[in-house]
Amino acid sequence: MIIIGIDPGLTGAVARIGHVDVVGSGPGSEVWDTPTAKDGKRTVFLPREMRRLLLDAIAGQACSVFIERVHSMPKQGVSSSFNFGMGYGIWIGLIHGLGYSIEHVTPNAWKKEMMAGMSKEKDASRVRAQELFPDADLHLVKHHGRADALLIAEYGRRRYGS
């Protein structure tokens, strides 16, 4: 059983933890940035590449998928809220289209458990994820989406077992 965690933002990521039955592979983690591209001044999601990424992450195995439940927040711009919601919707459609179910996890729930006793800021999630997944590439500030995806997956593994 593998666990998939998804941070659905434009700077988000998909993380996989658990076993992968490929020669030379075993338990561990892997994380991929959300596929996006520049379209003029805007950054846009690439749904075909997102689908391909999910298929690679799931690797034909039994899995549980956890995605951060998103909503607009005070002081967040309209464009930012729209993009966040768009990514959330694309991921949900792709996952259901591939025949998998999803557990929606609020940021408060996974952060409360995974970052107990820590600040809940983006940089803190990188620190915590690096502690739990020392081989993950989380060294740059822009990797907070990777860290969040890993922590969402770990929250799912702890909460629901595998």
Describe the 3D structure.
The structure is a single chain. The protein has helices at 47-58, 78-97, 107-114, 122-132, 144-160, and strands spanning 2-7, 13-18, 28-33, 36-39, 42-45, 63-68, 102-105. It is an alpha/beta fold and 162 residues long. It has one domain: Ribonuclease H-like superfamily/Ribonuclease H (Nucleotidyltransferase, domain 5, 2-Layer Sandwich). The strands form two sheets. Strands 3-2-1-6-7 form a five-stranded mixed β-sheet. A hairpin with a 5-residue loop joins strand 1 and strand 2 (13-18). It is globular. The termini are close together. Residues 21-26 have low confidence and may be disordered.
The CATH superfamily bears the name Ribonuclease H-like superfamily/Ribonuclease H
Assign the CATH topology. Answer: Nucleotidyltransferase, domain 5
Overall domain count: 1
Number of helices: 5
Helix content: 40-55%
Q: If strands are numbered along the chain, what order do they take across the biggest sheet?
A: 3-2-1-6-7
Task: Supply the helix-strand structural class.
Answer: alpha/beta
User: What is the rounded distance between the termini?
Assistant: 6 Å
Instruction: Please describe the biggest sheet, giving its number of strands, its sense, and whether it closes into a barrel.
Output: 5 strands, mixed
Give the low-pLDDT segments. Answer: 21-26
Mean pLDDT, all residues: 87
Strand content: 15-25%
State Rg.
15 Å
CATH class reads Alpha Beta
Number of beta strands:
7
Provide the CATH architecture: 2-Layer Sandwich
Task: Please state the overall shape, judged from the principal axes of the Cα atoms.
Answer: globular
Return the string of H and E elements: EEEEEHEHEHHH
